[in-house]
Design goal:
The protein is an alpha/beta fold. Helix content is 36%, strand content 18%. It contains 19 helices and 24 strands. Strands 1, 2, 3, 4, 5, 6, 13, 14, 15, 16, 17 and 18 form a twelve-stranded mixed beta sheet that branches. A four-stranded mixed beta sheet has the order 19-21-22-20. Helix 3 packs across helix 11, helix 9 packs across helix 10 and helix 14 packs parallel to helix 15. The longest helix is centred in the N-terminal third of the chain and has 21 residues. The chain is globular, with a radius of gyration of 23 Å.
Length: 558
Amino acid sequence: MTDIEIAQKNKMIPITQVAEKIGIKEGDLELYGPYKAKITFEELKTLQDKASKNPGKLILVTAVTPTPAGEGKSTVSIGLADGLNKIGKKTVVALREPSLGPCFGVKGGACGGGYAQIVPMEDINLHFTGDIHAISIANNLIAALIDNHIQQGNELNLDPRTITWKRCLDLNDRALRNIIIGLGGRIQGVPREDHFTIAVASEIMAIVCLSKTITELKERINRIVIGQNYKKENITFGQLKCTGAVAALLKDVIKPNLVQTLEKNPAFVHGGPFANIAHGCNSVNATLCALASGDYVVTEAGFAADLGAEKFLDIKCRSAGLKPNAVVIVATIRALKMHGGLAKTELSSENCQALEKGFENLKTHIENIAKFGLPAVVAINKFITDSDKEIELLKNLCEKLGTKAVLSEGWEKGGEGTAELARTVAEIADSGKADYHPLYSLDLPLAEKIKTIAKEIYRAGDLEFDSAALKKLKAFEDAGYGKLPVCIAKTQNSISHDPKLIGAPSGFTFPVRDVQLYAGAGFVVALAGDIMTMPGLPKAPAALNIDVDDNGIISGLF
């Protein structure tokens, strides 16, 4: 059966019963039908307080560098949570909401796979509780208010040529990357260049994910820098005095969503920033709710450890005061063989030489996690084509690095297939070996922070900053933003900036072509290589395979 067929055959229990398992009463839920719910503001505050006093053990799931062969990070995250519950550990999983862009593009959704999924799979992958739609509208309200301010007299003397705020859409649409607005005459607005980004890369998405309360949300929205006046002074959105209206659109978005795994275990699914062009983690509120309601929490950061994990550890954990207890690095033998030089068509045949060569990619990620003071375990996400000899080789290679590798069979067997992994992870999380610390000090200049990540995590030999990027970094520091962390936007398909450099490249020159200030979110974005914040659709998008019948049954989602 396909993933969606497995999900559709599953018999869900009412979300009220799922909530009861972690001590949340029906009155503390806002129901979106029988199988989805948001946490009320009152309960959210209670759970935040509880998490600050007696949190559960926090386990981060990350992965090797993605390949077309697939890695299954979400599948392992869900399977591990089910496995921990299977061995008697009260566990909650906290994941991101899927974006519609990948669902109709090439990557697919983010609900796991096989017998390690969260449900209702179709709802979560499509409109869910409307969070991303509301974020898009809030983002675009800011854009409309900016252009209206200019049209209605421009009291702030905002220079249209300096506007940095982009509109957004939760779909892959390359035609909207660069546009001209305001054409058609004086009453149609002031003509200027504009841009679209995908909604999950919007600063509003980041702000929602990093805010604990409506008050904090409004403070962050106030701090958004939208452009400069003609004196080259920064203008913030707060100066337009419309923050309350934007926050009103996000009133319900800030509340975490509760759903269930196929095995009826609780899952908080909330927030959806991409890890290649944003900070790549689910919301702080969802993580806090999970930490307050489970003895163990499994959470996931997007793409590989050089992207999602680095940003989770340097941005989210630092901002929210979180302290992880263990890290799981997902690897597949298929992916490592691709990093060893094999084509996708050659992956079904045993090839220990390619596996050993591709292991260098996994080795880099293991070493990187250790730089944050965290113990790691490797989860070998098993495929039917993996040979016993290859599995044993991978375990031995990890053992030589002092890292245990454990087979994960959650896709085929659900929680039962991850029980051994669960026991290993729980042992590491309970060991007290974690000594989490960020990679860099916030006191470093912004350019030095970027250099630290590029050299320590990506293994770059040198950096090449565009002159305009350096000028902007200096301006950010002069304006008082020098102590912000940095969020590097780069390809997910290589540890480097170049998607063609597979395996474990090193010594390359890392190009920083632009930087952007996300003052509301609280970080500076550095764009490297050819990365785009609005993806495009592939030649054969997943939309070709998605359909719905007269009974409302959806097919083709994955």
